[in-house]
Amino acid sequence: MKKLLIGLVLCGGLFQAQEAKVLTLPEAIEHALQHKAEAEKARLNIKKGDAQIAEVKANAYPNISFNSNTTYNPLLQETVLPGEMFGAPGQQVKVSFGQRWTSSNMIQLQQQLFNQSVFTGLKAAKSTKEFYLINAQLTEEQIIEKVANAYFQVYQAEQMNENAKSNLKITDQTIKIIKGLYDAGLARKIDYDRVVVARNNVNSAVQQTSNAVDLSENALKFMIGMDMNQEIQLPQQTFDPSVLGYDANIDDRTEIKLMNKQLELLEWQKKASEAEYYPVVALSANYGFLGQGAKFPWWHGEKDGVYWSDLASIGLNINVPIFNGFATKSRIELNKIEILKAEADLRETKLGLDLAHKNAITLLENNMTMIRTQEENVNLAEEVLKNTRSNYQYGLATLNDILDAERDLTEAKNNLTKAKLDYKLAEIELLKSQGKLRTLNELN
Description:
Elements lengths: L1 H18 L1 E2 L2 H11 L1 H22 L4 E10 L5 E5 L9 E5 L4 E14 L1 H68 L5 H36 L7 E2 L20 H21 L5 E14 L12 E14 L7 H67 L5 H36 L5 H4 L1
Parallel strand pairs: 1-6
Antiparallel strand pairs: 2-5, 3-4, 5-7, 7-8
Helix pairs in contact: 2-3, 2-4, 3-4, 4-5, 4-6, 4-8, 6-7, 7-8
Keywords: Cell outer membrane, Coiled coil, Membrane, Transmembrane, Transmembrane beta strand, Transport
Subcellular location: Cell outer membrane
GO molecular function: efflux transmembrane transporter activity; porin activity
């Protein structure tokens, strides 16, 4: 039974291992763009923009409505008229006007013939749709940036864990050397105990870095909207530095395109305010039936004392603004102020993006230099550890020298891992400053 249970556990572990997904950066980005709430809301905003555009366009279409009004008059209004009108001179006669029942059923049509505000709104509709599209692109780029940062954080955690495991192997090798010397009477018991303590410390570091890997993977899975139970693996080549060009056109940045489109919308808003100076011309038309009688009119005719008649009217309405207390002038002035503020923001944003681009280049170059330096340090630290071990066997070095050499090698490996991460983060900043974040799908 125990063997069966152990076999099931091993098979289960093998099954889980087979389910682990090798996740590249483009796949992580695509998954985030398909499943993250921010991306979904950006797509919904585009649909919202379509609905808003349709709402604006509706003002230019004919407005048709039907109105039915049926009234019962329990008391008819009476008017006193001279009796001469009814052949009764010298008397006053009360006459009731109207019928007990009246039913009015009208179809009404209204059509804007000239309304500058409507025309301006129609022209602004295209800019509004483009604004939502650019805003969605900016949202996607922000998601790409977050995913890329989280992705490389996972790789750093994995690399740090590999470094710790490698250091554990190195410490185990040192233990074997000291143990052999101790058994031969060439090393002290305290030396052997010290390296065992060092191995235990490194083993603890392995566990800590393993936990860090789990935490960083969970953070990445949350960032891309992936099931937390899904196991993932990162390709080894993911962390290699990429060769990038340094040229950039700030006007290609999505942020600049969005601000330019916002300026365009502000210009349309100013034109909409100016449209208040123009007259408004509208056509109206009505057609319907009026029923009157002593009975409910809908299903009765003349034989029941209900009389129906149709009626129609066509009208042309012209509204010419003359004076509104300078309200329109004030609104136009406010629109101009908003445009000037947006232009100031645009200039400041361009300056900031140019600064970010230059800083990204500097960071990228410095981090590449740091990577080369740390690679040399790792090779040198490995050589120092090898020579120190050899010297220890001949009594030319102390145990402290070996432990110091191991710590130096550990630090050099971790520094190299951090330098590579810093390079990839600087790479993301450079691509962002160039407006080329989407090319991350092609870098790995």
